[in-house]
Amino acid sequence: MGDLGRTLRAAREQAGLSLSGMAKRTGYSRGYIGNVETGVRAVTPDVIRKYESVLGEDLKRRQLLLGTISALAAGAAPETAASIANDINGGRTGMLTGVQTTHATDRVVASLVARNAPSIASLAKWCRSGKAVLRVNSAGILAKVGSPTIDNEAISVLRADAEARELYLTAVLHRVLGLDWNVAADLATSPEPFSTDQRRLLQAELSNPHDSGARYCSVLLLTSDQRAEPEVTVALLSALRSEASRENLRAIGAALAGVNPLKI
Q: Mean pLDDT for the chain?
């Protein structure tokens, strides 16, 4: 059984649904669903969207489902991104409502929509309304466009929207520290002291030129570490000199002053 199919089966079983019950709710046949879960058939974005639609109200099941997109999009980011960009350009939320997209996919999407003002406007609207996965995906793309003004919009959402922020923090921890999705999700809500190596990886992320949201999340994660290592202060000061986003500058300044960036 493939990892993605196993994840979908676990989410279904946690919900107490049989294969027949899932088939009725998704519109797929029982045999098709069974083949997807056992790895005979490939897991597709549409299958994940259907599962998320049926099972996504529960937080733990949603975390299982959102985690599948990382493996699904690996190696296929350009194709996936082109499809997402086409939907955005057409004013359609499309795949953004179903699963949390990856850093790599978001970067490609951002490059495709950056010069399209209506698309940016749509993303700015979506990141403040609708399902949490739509909000975080929209903010994630905006955070990778590379405009300080648009960065401010994305980071404002992460500061004010606890649910979207939790998903973004999870994605950063998953990508940067190489953690299992569920482990990253737990750490995003209940931060624990990081190891020296983990701290250094997050400090490097403070200067990530491709993702203002990841820079913001790294400030939050590093300042949640109660040990307050001197090297964190050095890294924050360095980031302060290179940061172009007003909202990130505010967060870094608050952290250096010993104030929770979420309280400013």
A: 87
Determine the Cα–Cα distance for residues 54 and 85; give it in Å rounded to an integer: 25
For residue 244, give both structure tokens.
């172009």
CA quadruple 53, 58, 61, 63: dihedral positive or negative?
Answer: positive
Determine the Cα–Cα distance for residues 158 and 128; give it in Å rounded to an integer: 10
CB 48 within 8 A of CB 81: no
Q: Which of 51, 54, 38 is nearest to 6 (CA)?
A: 38
Return the SS3 of 147.
coil
Supply the DSSP string of 58-101, one letter for each residue.
Answer: SHHHHHHHHHHHHHHHTT-HHHHHHHHHHHHHTT--GGGGTSPP
**For residue range 154-212, what is the model confidence (pLDDT) as tens digits?**
999 999 999 999 999 999 999 999 998 889 999 998 878 899 999 999 999 999 999 99
Looking at the chain, list the stretches that DSSP marks H as alpha helix, in order from N- to C-terminal side. Answer: 3-14, 19-26, 30-38, 45-55, 59-73, 77-89, 103-113, 117-126, 132-142, 148-160, 162-177, 181-189, 196-205, 212-223, 230-242, 246-256
**Alpha carbon of 11 to those of 3, 15, 36, 167: distances in Å?**
12, 6, 13, 18
